[in-house]
Every structure is written in C-alpha cells, then in structure tokens.
Amino acid sequence: MIHDDILNTVRDALELALITNVGTSDSAVVGIVKLGDLQGEPDPDTARISITLHENDPDRFISGAVTGLKDDWSDEVVEVEIGGATTWRRTFTIKARCLLESSKEGLTDAREIASTVRSRLEHALSGISFSTVEYDGEYVARGIVSDTLRGEMIQSGGPPDSYDYFIKFRFDVLTTRPVPGGGG
Question: Could you tell me whether strands 49-55 and 32-35 are parallel, antiparallel, or unpaired per DSSP bridges?
Fold first, then answer.
C-alpha cells in the first residue's frame, strides 16, 4: 500500500502543477492525470494531453512498446540494517501523451507544447515532498532526486497537422520499513 500512497501524492502534485496552476488558455495545459492507463476514460483525443502514473514500468512487459528505457525497473531491497530496518528502492513510471490531433498545431507549435509538458513534469517531480507518506510503519526516506530521474520524449505521429508525442519519466524513492521489534 505504500505504492498507492506514493502514487497518490505524485498525482496530487502533478494535478496542481499541470492543471490547477496553469491557465485554461495555456496550450500545454494537461487534460487528465490518472493512476494507471486511460482505458478509454477519457479517450486520448478528448484528453489531448494525458499523464498516467504506474508502479515499475509497464512497457517492460509489452513487446514492441514505444520506449528506449529497457533496463530492469523493479523494486529492490538496497539496504538491511542489522536488527533495525529494511530500505527499499521503489520504482515508478510516468507516461505522458500529447495527442494534438483535434487542435491541429504545426510542427513548431506541437514540439513547443510537448517540450513544455516535459519541462513542467520534470520540474514538478523534483519538488514533491513525501513527508506525510507512511503506511504500516514504512515511510519515504528519500524522495525523487535528479540523479535517478530519467526521461525521454519521442515524436510518434506527424505531418501535416496531427502531431503525437510520447513523454516518459522514470523515478524512484527509497522507503524504510522498521523490522518489528528490531529497534529501527
């Protein structure tokens, strides 16, 4: 359940940074931030710019997925203190899609919109506080840091007026779980 608490914290921060604090007339305003895939709710053309959040990296399990990030992205134990606590590296992926079919921007404007979304995402991720995230004694010991944040942007559709960009970020956080009765 610590995963859900982390993802909910990220979702709330991204909604604030990419929707609430961005004017509705801004061409890079995000339509939805959602846990898991859209699954048609809403349709990607309706959302126009959508952000989905995932544990680990779902593209690792999908043959032919559009991504250059192919290495292992699973949770793992990174430290065990003798008699005290276990520290986990919890991994997550954010996928953004800028499907600019309905708004018909040209290449320059479409690329600027996608780059703006990417920049805002990176900035928002770097500023998230996890100080209140705790589940059953497990808490976030280290939030998102720039040396483990990885991203990519791919133009996957185009000319003349229906550009489609995929943006992807991977990040991790460290969580610590005291061993019951271990004094941690």
Answer: parallel
